[in-house]
Amino acid sequence: MEPILNEQQSLMRETAVRLCKDYGGPKRARALRNAGTEMDVPAWMELVRSGWLCAAVSEDAGGMGMGILDVSLALEEAGKQLLMVPFAEVAAVAHVLGKIGARAENQLRAVQQGLQILMPALPQEGWGNVGSALPIARFEGGQWFLDGRIRHVPFAQSAQSYLVAARIGDEIMLCAVLRHLVKLDTVANVDGSTSSELVMDGSLVEESQVMVRGAQAQELLETLRDLLAITTGAALVGVSAAALEMTLEYIKYRQQFGKALGSFQALQHRVADCFVNLELNRSLVYRVAASYDAGQMHAAMAAAVKARTSRVALSLTRDALQLHGAIGYTDEHDIGLYYKRAIALAALYGNDINQTARFSALTL
Amino acid sequence: MNWDNTTLFSDDNPADAAFRREVRQWVDKNCPENLRDRPSRVTPPEMKPWHKKLFERGWIAPHWPREAGGMGATLEQQLILFEEIARIGAPTPFPHGLNFFGPILIHAGTPEQKARHCPGILSGDVTWCQGYSEAGAGSDLASLKTRAVLEGDHFIVDGHKMWTTNGTHADWMFALVRTDAEAKPRHAGISLILIDLKSPGVTVKPIKTIRGDAEFAEEFFDNVRVPKENLIGPLNGGWKLATMLLGGERFATGHPRNAAILLNRARQVARVTGADADPAFRQQLAALEIDLLAFTAYYRHGAALHGLGKVPESMTPVMKLAAGPLAQLASEFLVQVAGPAGASLADMEVDGEAVNPAEDLFEMRRVTVGGGANEIQRNILAKRALDLPS
Ligand SMILES: Cc1cc2nc3c(=O)[nH]c(=O)nc-3n(C[C@H](O)[C@H](O)[C@H](O)COP(=O)(O)OP(=O)(O)OC[C@H]3O[C@@H](n4cnc5c(N)ncnc54)[C@H](O)[C@@H]3O)c2cc1C
Predict the structure, then answer these.
(1) Residue B134 C-alpha to ligand 1 middle, in angstroms?
(2) B135 CA from centroid of ligand 1 (Å)
(3) What dihedral angle (degrees, nearest 10) is formed by the CA atoms of B77, B83, B89, B90?
(4) Which of A52, A97, A169, B34 is deepest in the core (most CB within 10 A)?
């Protein structure tokens, strides 16, 4: 169902549809993958120009004063068009920087003006439930030094710095770490995106790059996690929607047994179920994002978004592949790009299992 | 913040919030104890006092227009009444007269027909049943064969209706009958008539359900005389009226509350059986709660669109396809959590309350069959929303 939007939101959505079409699409995604390009730079520059990276930053802090719902609407389009950019991440980071205020002002301005890509670098394994240790910060001679490893950071080679949560005893701090002060170990993912391990062996962080500490840092870290779940979930809805649309077109056109595949009831019922799952997720993203914007979101709702959008994106694109037959198994056909993007995004920031466990822990 | 799966995304405005408080207090005070959280089905005679109370309070027909004796309530107010009644485990009054037939009567009935039948529906003094299905006409309802032949100022009705909920208790039936055997397409030969079940020639036999009760019945019509003025709408115009009804019910039948109640019951039972210490239980519960949250989001989104007159055609089938299986999964989960007691006919005692997982399991089986089975909903979605060929 269509979201309920005001005029400004409708306008932004229309623009997003156009921008993502112009700077995305399967052909472009394939070319980037084949060339081993981590990030689509022209698309990124266009996003910087649009101002949407700071759409969910208050006007006082220099943003557009819109919300996570607006960012999510644009991300749905980015997902549909397979845009290869860290939009979900940087928009979430920008929102958090905006909440920090003065100590993050410079970082935020640099993000907004496109002078830096500040990627969140958070431990991914278990997504905060199990097994993810934060790097350790030590203070020596008026400066901080970080030790530790953070695995599976996307777009790490394209970033200029990373937003890192580091541990100081019982406390945590959020700081910006410069890219050239960490060692990167990068591998390619199934969809052409990358996954880097950040190795910090005494990486220097100047005091001015420490943005927040203590209880507020912990709270903002949780917010960042929630937002990454929602924005990535919105992109997964877009990926799923495009895969379903492509599949519907295919089964209307492809003939077997003298009829269009789409006339067979077994297939009709399968795509009907896909549609139901997708429709629910769309409403889920809209409602949860709007709840966040209204200051009424329970953290479990964000976990639910990522769990369910991941689950459905995987099952839906898998069904899409099946309904394409052998052509779906080829590298040449575009449906595989959606399948693989679903795999990559579902794995990030807590997959279905991680987020379901998080939901459980948050609702006990 | 605590997790309350019954108030998710509810965004009452101040007036609605006040109405909710008022309803909550009143329902709590006025619903008979013996009807609350009942594992077994409430029969029409048991329902009557509760129906009457709601009637006297003016809350029995929130969705009816004021001039017909209803509240003319907004969808939000309707949902509040439904939710607050469900909150204490009280039964919702039977829908056959109030929700299924009433709106048709108000829409297509003559002033005389309305004056005659609306009061009994509202007060609950008259019990209505829906006579659509037949042995040979289920999903393919338009193939129905029960005949009504006009002779003078009476229809003569012959045939057989089946699966009629409350059939053994009902005073009246609103029935789809064939009034033109030759009509093409077949649904162009169907009319909607009202049959007094005490008429000579009517035989009602109970049918035992999978729950073991006699919820539904079959009726045999042998030369039954039905006055001509009991025709609702035009002759051979019954199909349109009947299908209108199938579309209008979506917000009441697909409410996420059904699944929420079952999941909360599973939580309670798990505390008693110790299953709540099992991580596998918690993971599965969370997965179901996540589905419930998604469905609730869709439901509230739809309700908001309804207010704007922008509900897409796909909403009715999507609601049915999402709500039914979710409630069924929740009831199956409840049975699992109960362990061996899940197979028992006897009630479990949980926090001083009687719980019967098998009853819930059976009750939920109906929701994907009645009112257009889920396979039919998928057919509708495929054709109308996804534009797939025949
Ligand atoms: C508890 C309960 C209460 C009821 N109360 C009433 C009542 O008060 N009044 C009344 O009139 N009726 C009532 N019904 C009947 C109900 O409307 C019918 O059961 C329903 O329309 C399905 O018809 P059927 O049972 O004949 O199943 P069938 O139509 O025989 O269907 C059997 C199975 O085949 C599937 N199927 C059928 N056609 C297709 C197709 N084209 N493509 C794919 N799959 C198909 C169905 O989905 C179903 O799974 C009640 C039913 C139940 C279970």
Answers:
(1) 10
(2) 10
(3) 20
(4) A97
